[in-house]
Each structure stands twice: as C-alpha cells, then as structure tokens.
Design a protein that fits this description.
With 225 residues, the chain is an all-alpha fold. It has one domain: Ferritin (Up-down Bundle). The protein has helices at residues 2-19, 38-67, 71-97, 108-123, 129-159, 163-196, 204-216. α2 runs antiparallel to α3 (71-97), α2 runs antiparallel to α5 (129-159) and α3 (71-97) packs antiparallel against α6 (163-196). The protein binds fe (ii) ion.
Length: 225
C-alpha cells in the first residue's frame, strides 16, 4: 500500500511538472521524509532575524525615549526597553530549547524601521507634540513587525511540537501586543489633539473638499500639497 501511494505521488508530481514549470505541491502531501526539514531551517532563520531585531531595539529605544516630548511617551519607551531586555533572554531560551547557539541575522526590515525613527527625530522639532505623534507611529510599525514575527513563530512552534518554545514566544507576543495597544492609547489621550494644534494647515480645507468630491464622483481627484 505504501509503495502504491508513493508511486501515485510521483505520477502526480510528474504530471504537474509537465503542465506548469513550478514546484507547487498539493496541500496535505508530506514531501520527502529523508530531506532535512526546510520548515525547521525557516523557523531558525526567523529566530535569528528577530534576535537581531530585538538587539537593534535595545540601542534604538533609549534614543526614542530621550527624544520624546511627553513624559507619558518617555515612560512607555523606558517600560518597553525593560521588556525588550526580557525578549532577548527569552529568545536565548528558545535557541537553547532547539539546541542551537543564539545568533543574530541582519534584518533589513528592522534596520529600515529604526532608520525611519531616527529620521523622525532629525526632522521634527524638539519639544513638539508632532514629534511624539510621529514617534508613536514609528514605534507601532516596529511592534507590528514583531507581532507578525512572534505570531508566526508561535504557530510554527505549536505545529512542530515545540510546545515549550511556543509558550516562551507567546509571552513576548502578548507584551508586543500590549505595547502596541498602549501606544495607541497614549496617542489618543495625550498627543494627537495637541499635535493637531501645532502650526497652521494650508491644505486641510482643500483636502476635506476633495474628500467629499471623492464620495460623490468617480473622477480621480488631483491632490496638491
Ligand atoms: Fe520585543
């Protein structure tokens, strides 16, 4: 029976490859058990990616805290810095669980997000609420990257039977989600309204008029800054 199933798979793969030049497989087929697990390699790569990312954040968060205008945002960054130190330790524990040495792998995405935060600090006025509003968005982009990574890693760990690793990663996932939610709360309660009152808008009225045009017309609006 086993032999027959294998032959069937081989026939199906041959047929598929003769029709389309892809290596796509049917969901539910198991692949070659003799090959090393690519999923395990991907899981390890993602661990290295987020380990590097967390270490970059250990350097970036203090700069963001120092640049913050409000105490509320500074406190939130300092609180998350302490959590980030724990995130690094938890990742080291997961490396230990899978029998590997902790190792980072350059993450272009996190480098870009950190650079974006640095640009905000350069381009906004010190002591302005606009700076805090922008820093919150930059920090939330970081959180969303982390949430996507930890969320995926937790699910993969469960799928691969790494339940202890899944528990450890899930603790960090919850803290990243809490941080994201508390940044939204800070923006809405303390920052955005005051940032809105800084400076004069030259385009707000026109934007509103064009917005109402968009609701009633199919003609694409032309925006001018
Ligand atoms: Fe983190």
């Amino acid at each position: 029976m086993k032999q027959n199933t294998k032959n069937k798979n081989q026939v199906r793969q041959t047929k598929a490859s003769s029709v389309t030049p892809t290596n796509k497989r049917t969901a539910g087929s198991n692949g070659n058990a003799n090959q090393p697990s690519l999923l395990e390699k991907f899981f390890t790569d993602q661990l290295k990616d987020i380990y590097y990312a967390e270490q970059q954040l250990l350097k970036a968060i203090p700069k963001m805290a120092q640049a913050s205008t409000t105490e509320e945002l500074e406190d939130a960054f300092n609180h998350h810095l302490k959590q980030t130190e724990r995130h690094v330790k938890r990742l080291e524990k997961v490396f230990q669980i899978i029998g590997k040495n902790p190792e980072g792998k350059k993450c272009e995405a996190m480098d870009g997000l950190v650079k974006e935060a640095e640009t905000i600090i350069k381009e906004t006025k010190q002591g302005s609420m606009t700076r805090d509003a922008a820093l919150i968005i930059a920090a939330q982009k970081v959180e969303h990257y982390e949430i996507a990574t930890y969320g995926g890693l937790v699910q993969l760990a469960i799928t691969m039977g790494l339940h202890r690793a899944a528990d450890v990663l899930d603790k960090t996932l919850l803290e990243e989600e809490d941080t994201d939610a508390s940044l939204t709360e800070i923006a809405e309660n303390y920052i955005n309204i005051e940032a809105d009152e800084e400076g004069n808008y030259s385009w707000q009225k026109g934007e509103e008029e064009e917005g109402s045009e968009l609701e009633t017309s199919d003609t694409p609006a032309t925006y001018s800054m």
